[in-house]
Amino acid sequence: MHRYRTHxxxxxxxxxxxxxxxxxxxxxxxxDHGGLLFIDLRDHYGLTQVVADPDSPAFKLAETLRSxxxxxxxxxxxxxPAGTENPELPTGAVEVFIxxxxxxxxxxxxxxxxxxxxxxxxxIRLKYRFLDLRRDRLHAxxxxxxxxxxxxxxxxxxxxxxxxxxxxxxxSSPEGARDYLVPSRIHPGKFYALPQAPQQFKQLLMVSGFDxxxxxxxxxxxxxxxxxxxxxxxxxxxxxxxxxxQQDVFDAVEPVLRGVFEEFGQGKPVTPxxxxxxxxxxxxxxxxxxxxxxxxxxxxxxxxxxxxxxxxIFANILAADPKNEVWAIPAPTGxxxxxxxxxxxxxxxxxxxxxxxxxxxxxxxxxxGPLAKNIGPERTKQxxxxxxxxxxxxxxxxxxxxxxxxxxxxxxxxxxxxxxxxIAKDRFDFCWIVDFPMYEWSEEEKKIDFxxxxxxxxxxxxxxxxxxxxxxxxKILGMKAIQYDIVCNGIELSSGAIRNHRPEVMKKAFxxxxxxxxxxxxxxxxxxxxLSLGAPPHGGIAPGIDRIVMLLCGEENLREVVLFPMNQRxxxxxxxAPSEVTPKQLRxxxxxxxxxxxx
Length: 599
Fold this sequence. Notes:
Blueprint: E1 20-32, E2 37-43, E3 46-52, H1 59-64, E4 70-79, E5 94-105, H2 122-127, H3 129-132, H4 136-158, E6 162-163, E7 180-183, E8 191-194, H5 199-207, E9 212-221, E10 232-242, H6 246-264, E11 276-278, H7 279-286, E12 300-301, H8 303-306, H9 312-320, E13 325-331, H10 337-349, E14 356-361, E15 364-368, H11 370-387, E16 394-400, H12 402-419, E17 430-434, E18 439-442, E19 447-450, H13 462-466, H14 473-477, E20 483-488, E21 491-498, H15 503-512, H16 517-531, E22 538-541, H17 545-552, H18 583-588
Parallel strand pairs: 3-5, 6-9, 11-17
Antiparallel strand pairs: 1-2, 1-4, 2-3, 4-5, 7-8, 9-10, 10-22, 12-13, 13-16, 14-15, 14-16, 17-20, 18-19, 20-21, 21-22
Helix pairs in contact: 4-6, 15-16
């Protein structure tokens, strides 16, 4: 007989009745039924109920066992007594009567329980992550993560992609988030950087003559944590393709994502064909470039209904600046004063002066509320017709410069959808966001800067771009780039672009943003040299693995699908990182600390 087990704790069935077996695992739950001890023995594969009574030679030892002790059990498989079967368990028809117990690993007092899924403070969960990972839900999430990555790999290879591994120690880059820096011992005063993404290496592979590559790549960014963004490190499906258009990238990546979500989405419908939504349309209709299409609400510009109207606040805003607008957020089924007042109070809690509204109820088809009285029935009916609302519905209004109020309008649309139960929770709604602006105005630096990705190709003929007057701010700020995002249920899964493969175009693009050739040469010299020696048109994308898994596991926080995550302050509470190093280590790296004063 094997030293530790003849079967796993998920293997025994009715066909094994009468068999002598050996199991090893953790004591998941112990129940004392007046002299009869029931122990749910757990391992990676499942649970088996093992039983001891006073007639068992192992009974006295069984009485000393506690939760999460690791034990070996020898015994005989028998049928569970009638009425005690557990159809929820694959092993639920049988139990093992214990003949012998060996304690392999006793456990002290547990800082958090493993049995059950009760909430527990995050700092305890992260410090004792090895215990947290024993819990059913988290254990299942991690196994599902592995299966999802296997599926992605298989689908990519079936699509003609080859997997590469790119360097982890590389050069610092000025774009994106802060780098994690690694000091060089043999090059005093110089530093490597951990890659924020392997994009430059992916592009260099295309210049090297490879055609379709992918990797499940670790990425490192020194940025603050969010529910959908892990601090420190995360994983991406990095993809690059040569001789492709934007549509070619879509045609290669969309079936992979759709297939994975259909495979692991537990039957939830998945968008059959991802719609393409221009960035400007997304911002106007949804108030965000990450729209949750499960929410059917689309905002509309209703400025004409208020221009010169009796509602002087909006009329004056529109008259003050031709760029000002009034947007409406339709609220189907929200046509009552209680809901309208509740939304108005929410807006004030968000730091807004309020949220104007009109609601339609039986007998008042021309609308009710202060706005309706001020603008009159004709304009109110005009708004209802434009929005497609009627009796039982409402609409909320926001006025000013769209570029300023859109950060409030998007959450307001979401709030209406959530409060009215309009968001379909049981499906995966995907879309492509396209036609991002190439540049934006930086109010802080009072200059034009890149708005998305500096390595993207401008969406205009190359000769026309090279002939652009750098002082023509209006034309430059109106430019589009061949950049795109994938969004699912309001979460951005990926950014990508058709890359800038012409050195003269790259120099011009960076010059418009205020970066001289010396900066390009210093930071991207290798890329420039590569592009000047025969580079094919190429493009790529990098869907976030952690976010994909989070959606498919039905979680709202990435820490529920990552093995050993950091906390919000980018600390690894389990391993104690970041940690201090010895003076000897600092001397070897030629580093002297200049720490801030303690307050």
